[in-house]
Amino acid sequence: QLLESGGGSVQAGGSLRLSCTASGYDISSACMGWFRQAPGKEREGVALIRSDGSTSAADSVKGRFTISKDKAKNSLYLQLNSLKPEDTAMYYCVVRSGTCATRHLADSGYWAYWGQGTQVTVSS
Questions:
Q1: Which of the two residues, 89 and 29, has the higher pLDDT score?
Q2: Which end of the chain has fewer CB within 10 Å, C or N?
């Protein structure tokens, strides 16, 4: 089970930190990531982090969002800075065993488990 938290409403330029806690799943050997979906739009991969700690991010969030994890807490994080209204979406935590590549940010079907999502709303 993946449980997200940390969403909310902020003004443009603000920051949020999303958290995802994995229950019953050891993230130490897994690939984890964040996707988002805005109303009327397709689901979009935001960032991923591999078991070795290396990361990939979508061009739209590079330099603004940072993905990280804490193996001891079995948790995943997404720091969102310099938020824009177009970042408004439901954000989902995802995980799968093994490896992952940047291209898997464009492949929602690659991911084995999804959280329920946490809403991020950015006002102008």
A1: 89
A2: C
